[in-house]
From TrEMBL:
Residues 2-241 form the ABC transporter domain. It holds the Pfam family ABC_tran. This is D-methionine transport system ATP-binding protein. The lineage of its organism: Bacteria, Bacillati, Bacillota, Clostridia, Peptostreptococcales. It comes from the Bacteria. It comes from Anaerovirgula multivorans.
Length: 265
């Protein structure tokens, strides 16, 4: 279980301060696929990076499986992070290593013997359906294949939690769907809890069971996806979902809508 308690993040700089997260309370239960949605600048990346403390909250507590990460020494934090894999919009694969070596990388860092690394890499290649690409380099793969390898690498150390930072945003709709299906399969088969951030409401609808809507660093609504999508309570959620329906059902009008300045409507 992941719990954020009263988490705030203030970025301070000479250009001015930005309160990216404002008193966030969030609980993700074991086995959830929890989707955090919001527009650009809402604070999504900051929030997901606070879960594994890639970003340190200015105040508040982060708990994972009853351990308060915000209190851990850097050594213990490093160990705790092994329980959390992460995938990114632009994959972050190592270009000088082939597929096999990319997946093996975290296992090498953990000092696993070579024969066990090979066995684990084989299992993971099987899971993501890319056995035949084991000798290829990232530059020789499509975006969808790169993301599959990034997922395999993120799962190499058997994490209990997978964090997904806009993992399908750079992909076409069909490839995006296949990656989301893979994430769902991983959640089902391996019981891995997934937290994802996205600005695409269809991603939430396709695989998440719970969601939170983030606006200007505040969670304005959270709950079961089935409830939030059917009966949104907050005006901002209604606006986001209303726009999605508009996009889905009326693409011709949308072209017009895109060209109209909001202030001029
Ligand atoms: N390192 C930083 N220093 C200062 N301000 C930052 C920093 N990182 C993010 N911010 C600001 O914090 C706010 C939230 O940013 P964040 O990247 O978390 O939003 P986001 O919802 O992930 O946006 P996007 O979808 O565009 O990636 C923004 O106003 C951003 O400019």
């Amino acid at each position: 279980m992941i719990e954020l308690k009263n988490v705030s993040k203030l970025y301070e700089s000479n250009e001015g301060n930005v309160l990216a997260l404002n008193n966030i309370d969030l609980t993700v239960e074991k086995g959830d696929i929890y989707g955090i949605m919001g527009l650009s600048g809402a604070g999504k990346s900051t929030l997901i990076r606070c879960i594994n403390l890639l970003e340190c909250p200015t105040s508040g507590e982060v708990w994972v499986d009853n351990v308060e990460l915000t209190k851990l020494s850097s050594n213990l934090l490093r160990q705790s992070r092994r329980n959390m894999g992460m995938i990114f919009q632009h994959y972050h694969l190592l270009t000088s290593r082939n597929v096999e070596k990319n997946i093996a990388y975290p296992l090498e860092l953990n000092g696993l013997p070579k024969n066990q690394i090979k066995e684990r890499v084989d299992q993971l290649l099987d899971l993501v359906g890319l056995k035949e690409k084991r000798s290829n380099y990232p530059s020789q793969l499509s975006g969808g294949q790169r993301q599959r390898i990034a997922i395999a690498r993120a799962l190499a150390t058997n994490p209990k939690i997978l964090l997904s930072d806009e993992a399908t945003s750079a992909l076409d709709p069909i490839t995006s769907r296949s990656i989301l299906n893979l994430l769902k399969e991983i959640n089902n088969k391996l019981g891995i809890t997934i937290v994802l951030i996205t600005h695409q409401m269809e991603v939430i609808e396709q695989i998440c069971n719970k969601t939170a809507v983030l606006k200007d660093g505040n969670i304005v609504e959270q709950g079961l996806v089935s409830r939030v999508f059917k009966a949104p309570q907050h005006p901002y959620t209604k606006l986001l979902l209303g726009h999605r329906d508009f996009e889905k059902h009326d693409p011709i009008s949308l072209d017009f809508f895109r060209n109209v300045k909001v202030g001029g409507l």
